[in-house]
Amino acid sequence: MILKEQLKTFAPIDLKQMDRVKLLRRSDTKYLISKKKVSDLLSSLAQDYFILEIDGNRIASYHTAYLDTPDKMYYKHHHQGRNKRHKVRFRTYVESCLSFLEVKLKDKGKTNKKRITSTQNNSLDEAQKAFLSEWITEDLEQLNTSLENTFQRVTLVHKREQERVTIDFNLNFVLENQTIPLAEQVIIEIKQSRVNRNSVISKLLRSKLIRPLRLSKYCIGCILMDDGLKYNRFKSKLLKINQIQSVWNF
Questions:
Q1: Distance between CA atoms of residues 38 and 4, nearest Å
Q2: For the chain, what are the domain ranges?
Q3: pLDDT at 250 exceeding the cut of 50
Q4: Fewer CB in 10 Å around end: N or C, the chain?
Q5: Phi, psi for 247 (deg, rounded to 5)
Q6: DSSP alpha helix (H) spans, 48-135
Q7: Residue 249: pLDDT band by 50, 70, 90 thresholds?
């Protein structure tokens, strides 16, 4: 069964209904799997999860532009394994034409996301600088677009628990005129107010011997685009990405 047909088996939920599980401050657990494994997972989740539907669409398209300093300070902080770190990005929801400037703060495993409605410009305007200054201390004049990506996402919402699940696929990294696709890899992210390893999807993944993998789209994209970056800490992630092979298509 192809993906779109399987998604029809889920009861829909809209954005307003999903607000009860907004989880801007949360714990995230990520998994990396191949496309061919997604079908089997979805068939076991429809009973316990709603699917986000917007204007009849159950698959949403995203565009992200990450900001960083010329020497990739945010990337380096992640590579160094700092407990307190952050990312700055513009996130656009393509179908709805909504864009946000976001700061994603990480502190001892907890994610706290702050954002304002805002569109990407060639340089930060005063309102954007004022917002960022509330959360970060570095020189904002040093921030420029360092990487872009596009992907598609399915969002599931647990019917009873405070839990959301995102399934990201058809990921492409873009820098200037270069594009690198990750066509066969799928990133699953479980978002919870606190980590619950016994949730329905957590137990399902564990039963299939699929283990959590700490993974940053931004860091992986930086490595793929710039072979001069130090990436010792991420070698196991790159190996996992390269191991995934599939001929199964959405």
A1: 12
A2: 3-243
A3: no
A4: N
A5: -110, 5
A6: 73-79, 126-133
A7: very low
